[in-house]
Amino acid sequence: MSAALAFDLLLSTALVWSAWRTITANRLDQAVVMFIVFGLLMTLAWCRLRAPDIALAEAAIGAGLTGALLLDALGALRKAKTARRRQ
Amino acid sequence: MSSELLFAVVGALIFTLGVAGTILVANLLRRILAFNLMGSGAFLVLVGLAQRGGESDPVPHAMVLTGIVVAVAATALALALLRKQHEVKDSEEELTEIDDG
Amino acid sequence: MKRAIVIAAALVFGGLLINAIVDLPSSPVNLRIAVADNMAKSGVSHPVTAVLLNFRGYDTLLEIAVLLLALIGLMAAGPMLPPPPNQPADAMLQKLARIATPPVIVVGGYLLWAGAFRPGGAFQAGAVLAAAMVLLHLSGLLSAWNAQLLPLARRVILVGGFVLFLCVSVALLAAGSLLQYPPEQAGLLILLIESGLTLSLAAILAGLFLFLSRDNGGAP
């Protein structure tokens, strides 16, 4: 088994594991963070698939912008809950 | 098995995880995450299958590029609707989920 | 009970999918060769950019339209909860954002220009510029955007890329078929369309974040 295939197996295992943890995490913020990790691992997968354009776009948009949107939504839902609880 | 085919199989696995997650989880934010997993799995299958012979193919690259950008726009719209729904209607499942945090 | 059925069905579905993927015979269509043969007529030397903006330019036109629709839907979702009390932004973060933004703009411009020769292009450049705007917002230097009070310049930039692309397509439609660039001017047309797309995309992607953010953008 060559080193490249071993690396690909490791990367694939990490991809599937982070996807699994995104769905089955106990807390919502853990799920969001695991999704961001999944996006960054996808960037590596695109590099291994010889697709540098997709890797650039996935890093900036998939991990960066989507991560920012999800964290902002998480914060907004939390603020709404504390605001409602204070009423 | 070449590494591209390995990634295609992994993409199929992630897609299946995303489908099961979209159907099974109750929390809407997790459903959005599972839906994005479906999208990423589909992109991996698209590029992995096209390149299983070994040479890189630009047409699925362009398709996946388009797909990533459209997926982020759809996620943003879904999150806006989620926040509006949470604001308008008391949703107990959101509250109990965030309670653990 | 439903959970067990769905998990079993998902396992069967996954197994069938993986079986189909591994057993797939080789494809009779080889698009890679078709693209490589037509690269001279496309106006750029990077195959992905050629496919994105020349051979499959129609898909890109529809994509920017879909992005605009998603943004309009997001703006129509309405104003969110009243904003939390304003916290002063960290001075170190503001300094970092101020220092980091000009190089990021240069990187965006480089990615736009380099898309013709190497990996890059309008989408990556637009995403990088949008990330800079989100960073500026998070450090308190750029206020959130208000869907009700949108200045004209911002509206023009948001829609401009799509309108430019549409005008080029209509002009080409009048001259021949849809989005078939004449080979001598293909490079110039692609650069023009990509520039418009970069600015619009940066504004739209930043808008996806900034319209949702929780401060009221200065409105009373």
Q: What is the structural class of chain B?
A: mainly alpha
Distance between the termini of chain A: 63 Å
Envelope shape of chain B:
elongated
Helix fraction of chain B, binned, reads over 70%
The unreliable regions of chain B are none
Largest interface: A-B, 45 and 50 residues
The assigned structural class of chain A equals mainly alpha
Strand content of chain B: under 5%
How many helices of chain B does DSSP assign? 4
Distance between the termini of chain B: 43 Å
**CATH topology annotation of chain B:** Helix Hairpins
Note the main sheet of chain B.
Answer: none
Total strands of chain A:
0
Average of per-residue pLDDT values of chain B? 87
Report a brief summary of the structure:
Chain B is mainly α and 101 residues long. Chain B is built from four helices and no strands.
What do these coordinates show?
The complex is a heterotrimer of chains A (87), B (101) and C (220). With 87 residues, chain A is an all-alpha fold. Helices cover 90% and strands 0% of the residues of chain A. The N and C termini of chain A lie far apart (63 Å). In chain B, helix 2 (28-50) packs antiparallel against helix 3. Chain B has 101 residues and is mainly alpha-helical. Helix content of chain B is 83%, strand content 0%. Chain B has four helices and no strands. Chain C has 220 residues and is an all-alpha fold. Chain C has one domain. Chain C is globular. The chains are: A mainly alpha (87), B mainly alpha (101), C mainly alpha (220). The interface between A and B is large, with 45 and 50 residues.
Helices and strands in order:
The complex is a heterotrimer of chains A (87), B (101) and C (220).
Chain A: H1 3-24, H2 28-48, H3 52-86
Chain B: H1 3-24, H2 28-50, H3 58-88, H4 92-99
Chain C: H1 2-22, H2 31-37, H3 47-55, H4 57-76, H5 91-114, H6 122-138, H7 152-175, H8 186-210
Helix pairs in contact in C: 3-4, 4-7, 4-8, 5-6, 6-8, 7-8
Keywords:
heterotrimer; A: 87 residues; mainly alpha; 3 helices; elongated; C: 220 residues; 8 helices; globular; disordered C terminus
